[in-house]
């Protein structure tokens, strides 16, 4: 799933095509990272993206951006809807049904690619609202690519 300010894009492909499609669709382009935003993002934003409620997601993102310097690249990208979220989930079939076997979620702007550290389970994510908000970590873009490839290799 890739969420952008203009809508949500779902991709379902055969297992053998996943690396190629992931490379084409995840927006992890080369370039410098300017991480002048906050060290975390709101759980409300993450849940809104996962609920495919882009108005709520944009509103939550504006609240996050309003807390930082207004002239930062992060704030400008958020206010001008230059953002997307790429979520890559690996599921495995168990006797109880499909279970999350790992995921990598990235918040992407024109100036930054950051990994969102948040649980997939909505109940666990809701607990983060009360305690620690999901953190944003901006490793090199090649590291993010490596995390996604590791997820596929399991």
Task: Write up this protein.
A 6-stranded antiparallel β-sheet has the order 2-1-3-4-5-6, sandwiched between helices. It has 154 residues and is α+β, with helices and mostly antiparallel strands. Helix content is 38%, strand content 25%. It is globular. The chain contains 6 helices and 6 strands, in the order E-E-H-H-H-H-E-E-E-H-E-H. A hairpin with a 2-residue loop joins strand 3 and strand 4. Helix 2 runs antiparallel to helix 3, helix 2 packs antiparallel against helix 5 and helix 3 packs antiparallel against helix 4.
Unreliable parts: none
- Alpha carbon gap, first and last residue: 20 Å
Strand-residue proportion: 25-35%
Spell out the helices and strands N to C. EEHHHHEEEHEH
Total beta-strand segments: 6
Radius of gyration: 15 Å
Count of helical regions = 6
Mean pLDDT: 85
Strand order of the largest sheet: 2-1-3-4-5-6
**Which descriptor suits the 3D outline?**
globular
The main sheet comes to: 6 strands, antiparallel
Task: State the secondary-structure class.
Answer: alpha+beta
Into which percent range does the helicity of residues fall? Answer: 25-40%
Main features:
154 residues, alpha+beta, 38% helix
Describe the structure in brief.
This protein is of the alpha+beta class and 154 residues long. It contains six helices and six strands, in the order E-E-H-H-H-H-E-E-E-H-E-H. Helix 2 packs antiparallel against helix 3 and helix 2 runs antiparallel to helix 5 (122-130).
């Amino acid at each position: 799933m890739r969420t952008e300010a203009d809508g949500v894009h779902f991709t379902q492909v055969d297992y053998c095509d996943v690396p190629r499609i992931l490379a084409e669709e995840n927006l992890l382009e080369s370039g410098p990272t300017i991480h002048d935003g906050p060290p975390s993002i709101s759980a409300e934003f993450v849940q809104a993206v996962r609920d495919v409620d882009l108005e709520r997601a944009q509103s939550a993102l504006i609240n996050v951006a309003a807390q930082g310097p207004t002239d930062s690249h992060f704030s400008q990208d958020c206010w001008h809807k230059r953002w997307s979220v790429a979520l890559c989930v690996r599921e495995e079939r168990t006797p109880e049904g499909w279970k999350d076997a790992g995921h990598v979620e990235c918040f992407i702007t024109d100036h930054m690619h950051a990994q969102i550290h948040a649980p997939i389970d909505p109940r666990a994510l809701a607990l983060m609202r009360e305690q620690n908000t999901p953190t944003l970590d901006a490793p090199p873009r090649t590291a993010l690519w490596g995390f996604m490839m590791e997820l596929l290799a399991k």
